[in-house]
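Shape is hard to put into words, and the shape of a protein is harder than most. The fold becomes a row of whole numbers, each drawn from a learned catalogue of backbone shapes. The outcome of that step, for a single protein, is printed below.
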Amino acid sequence: LAISEKHNAVAISEKCNSAVAMNKKHQTCCSKCISERDSEHNDTASLLFRMSIKCSGKVSKWINLKKLSRDLGWRVARATGWTTELRQPQMEVCLHVSDGHVTSGVPLTRFPLSRRVYLGDSGLRAPIAWIISQLASIKAGDIVLDPMCGKATILIEAATDIGLLGNAWFIGSDRDASQIDRALQNLSTCDCSNTTSLLKADGLNMPYRNACLDVVVCDAPFNQNHLFALTPQMFYYKFLTEIYRVLVPQGRCVLLTSEQLKHTVLLMVEGAEENQTQKDNFQSEGATSQTLVKGSKTHKDCYEARMLLCH
């Protein structure tokens, strides 16, 4: 019994010593964490920031951006202890106000996501071009067309996707020869030039066979200066008619347009789908004979298909 009690006492003593050591270690860690937190707090308290506010829609007509920026900047400074600095801020607090939403946030990257080392002359903002390509759900073996490619930003964003690199074929066309030249310059600086072709062609009168493309992506012109001599309604009617003609059954199309024209375009899409369904019922044999096999195309098949696209 005495030996047992002695062993228990030794065990208890060792346990207490261990607990004391752990407690000291915990206190040391806590002190270190507190000092780091205080240091971070001091650094954060002296942070220089500025407000960056953008408005879109009807609210942009009556919102005073300068007053809103000043008022919100004062509130952010009061809540965080930060200091307002308009010329050389360390942080930018971004706010986007639209008719239906207010979105706020801070940048997570040192440089803008829109900056691309492989785009010497970008047109459409690269993040928007990337979103368009992702919405199109492009798969390996697809043939993708941008009928008004401009500087080919959308095609390059899609073609440089790691999962698609070298496994899909991309075609860009534009009626403006100067835009094609700029697109060629952009293609020369990236890794997708071997799978991307460019040609001068009218997007309202495409030189492609019926049902030969899997995907159409486009930043469709919605500014009156870019609609040539046509009204927006007539332009989109002709454009959507051509898109439905060249797409394979179950093909996909992603168009970027303005908020004002969105409902008009959607109504035309519904009408074009109904018209195409009626045509398919009467011309199913002809359409089937011209449809490229989808889902089993290899890179070689894409190259061979490119040679057959034009009339």
Notes: Residues 1-16, 18-42, 282-303 have pLDDT under 50 and may be disordered.
